[in-house]
Amino acid sequence: QVTLRESGPALVKPTQTLTLTCTFSGFSLSTSGMCVSWIRQPPGKALEWLALIDWDDDKYYSTSLKTRLTISKDTSKNQVVLTMTNMDPVDTATYYCARTAPDPDAFDIWGQGTMVTVSS
Amino acid sequence: EIVMTQSPATLSVSPGERATLSCRASQSVSSNLAWYQQKPGQAPRLLIYGASTRATGIPARFSGSGSGTEFTLTISSLQSEDFAVYYCQQYNNWPPVYTFGQGTKLEIK
After folding, report:
1. DSSP secondary-structure letter at A45?
2. Confidence tier at B96 by pLDDT (50, 70, 90)
3. Which residue of B has its CA nearest to A46?
């Protein structure tokens, strides 16, 4: 059974750096074609893709947020980490991690999400 | 960046009736289009990928069609559990810059 679970702080202050961890099981991020993405959703708003890391350690970022994002993986721990710098209240959202497999190559399994509030 | 536009924003349909949701891409995404269902307080669930292939465990009443820039999600006979928000998403780019539509809320009439 494939599962993903996000963890991280529920509250961060403006200008701080957010670090989120996605811990997964049931698949290996060393397997060709496997990818993990981060996606966020502000309250009552639409989904926004943030970043992706693939089995070959290639990393891709949202055009509008790329200067603030870093994605990395620890294959031995089955974890993917996202850092976002210079947090602002507009970054308040539920942050999800999700898997992409070779088939289907859409986000087939999602974590339950973690709500992050940015406030002083 | 490819912009995905969904219509309508809200759709009111009675149980047992058919629902048709639309998604338009600002440029061709071929068949690299997925649909997701999201219920309140839950993560999105993959329904359709490749524009028309149902994901594992998705009932046959859900169907997807289209290619290029125009796509449709059809729910043939609405069940109570189908009332939710639906998002389309394109994954045509490489390197990936994935984008979602703004969502269609399907509500009970």
Report:
1. S
2. confident
3. B102
